Amino acid sequence: MHRLVSFFEDMWYRPRWYHWTVATLLLPISLLYGVMMWIRRRLALPMEYGLPVIGIGNLLVGGSGKTPMAIALASHYQKSAVVLRGYGRKSRGLVVVSEWGRVLTDIETSGDEAMLLAKSLPASTVIVSENRHAAIQKAASMGAGIVFLDDAFGKVDIKKFDILLHPARVVNPFPLPSGPFREFPFEKRRADLVLVEGRDFRRRVVCEGCDRTLMLVTAIANPARLEPYLPKGLVKCRMILPDHAWFDEKKIVEKMRHCGVDRIVTTEKDVVKMEGFRIDTAILKLTLDVDKKVFEAIDKYLKNRS
Predict the structure, then answer these.
(1) Under 8 Å CB-to-CB from 136, ≥6 apart: which residues?
(2) pTM of the entire structure?
(3) How many domains does the chain have?
């Protein structure tokens, strides 16, 4: 399964000549999928909630900076709440992960992204739920003044200000499964604000503790995107798991011994699932530099609602 996932990630983000053969064969499915999503968007009746909802999403599968963008934006506004599904969690239903900065659950209940948000937003509320409507209503009942909806562009039944994150360069322009797009690429015009990486926001990564040989341990989508930020020549081996997978401390230690290293390097999203592990850990800490026009656009939206 891991090899199959890696093949499709390469076909979507780093295609070589042989990937295009597979992508072409899958095009009829991609066209059907794209048309279904096109119809779904146009038949939607968005629901209003009486408070501003800011959607943060993307058109491509995989990581695009949605979680750090949610942190950057939510930290800028008072009484902000972040609502997300909570992929990978071992719970179901609506769960209040944090209430105005006070963490109320454990990592297995919240999931990795929600816990990272909760620990990164000491003045906000974080809620996970498969039912985003119920979660937004819960946030409103808790006194939220603004809701940031994570992974939101496809939530066409919610009235919101849509912020779409888009990479600077896309090699494969097809919808799933031939390419990485969740909808036809031209649907980005439906967003209220399209932010292009490198132009409207930039990643800033600091590797804390990256001063010796390391083993990379991660469970994120498209892990190859970490490569530019890893210390050159220090990563001796890698332990790559599927997105949102849980870690086994014993297996990590065994792999470290096999590789001959005594420290791992991982992401902030991964390290929240390693609490209590007795493993020396270096961390890739990611923040976003966001253009001020993003906040100006949100402020204008909020002013027009009042």
Answers:
(1) 49, 51, 53, 83, 147, 149, 158
(2) 0.93
(3) 2
